[in-house]
Amino acid sequence: MKKLVFTFFIALLAIPSVLLAQENDNNSEDFSRWQVRVRGVAVIPDPSATIEAIGGDVDISDSFIPELDFTYFFTENLAVELILGTTKHEVHTVGSDLSPIGGGIADVDLGEVWLLPPTLNLQYHREVFKNFKPYIGAGVNYTIFYDADDFTTVKSVSYDNAFGISTQIGFDYMFTDKFFFNVDFKYIFLKADVEVDASNLADNLSIPAEVEINPMLLGFGVGMKF
């Protein structure tokens, strides 16, 4: 999966600049510059981690959330999109070595955490045939971690907010001049620093980790131009 996503990302960056050259200098100003969408989004992390002291890997649960996004068109083809939503995930380590604290190989429950990941993508849209408008995009994500709780094994877990790179592909299908159906896929390259306070298991035990979350987001929804 990672190789597939990496190939897609390289292809996205390699799109020839001739696409921009195709923009008509006399592009009509008679078009809707704003659109809003409401989507249901499956958030599927593709996680891995480097965990000091106890080793192992990490697993992060999937989630399904509502999402709201706004798009502004500079021209009929070039646009910028702001995506808003929040999601909660369960986190645990996989195959950690707890022998330093008298245990064996085990998974460690790290509780739950909420993510607020506002994402801004620059997009290129193109109508390839009547009413069918695919697009590609790339941009920046800033993920805010909050309300980490429900720790059953360790004392607490803290997450550093982090920037990521967003890639995107999707399409709009117009029902009317204003209303449309949307399918959208994003992959966000996101890495965060995590600190696990396990002082309840051993005196002054703190476990730093570098976690790649790398969520895939598959969305379906409806939208309106205005």
Structure, explained:
- Strand 4 and strand 5 (78-84) form a beta hairpin.
- The protein has one domain (34-225): Porin.
- Helix content is 7%, strand content 61%.
- The chain has helices spanning 2-13, 18-21, and strands at 34-45, 48-51, 57-60, 63-73, 78-84, 87-94, 96-97, 105-106, 109-116, 119-125, 132-149, 156-159, 162-174, 179-197, 206-212, 215-225.
- The protein contains two helices and 16 strands.
- It has an eight-stranded antiparallel β-barrel.
- It is mainly beta.
What's the short story on this structure?
This protein is mainly β and 226 residues long.
Task: Produce the secondary structure layout.
Elements: H1 2-13, H2 18-21, E1 34-45, E2 48-51, E3 57-60, E4 63-73, E5 78-84, E6 87-94, E7 96-97, E8 105-106, E9 109-116, E10 119-125, E11 132-149, E12 156-159, E13 162-174, E14 179-197, E15 206-212, E16 215-225
Antiparallel strand pairs: 1-4, 1-16, 2-15, 3-6, 4-5, 5-10, 6-9, 7-8, 9-11, 10-11, 11-13, 12-14, 13-14, 14-15, 14-16
Could you say what the CATH topology is called?
Porin
Quick one: how many beta strands?
16
Q: What is the CATH top level name? A: Mainly Beta
Shape: elongated
What key phrases describe this protein's structure?
226 residues, mainly beta, Porin, 8-stranded antiparallel beta barrel, two-stranded antiparallel ribbon, 16 strands, 7% helix, elongated, OMPW, OMP/PagP_B-barrel, signal
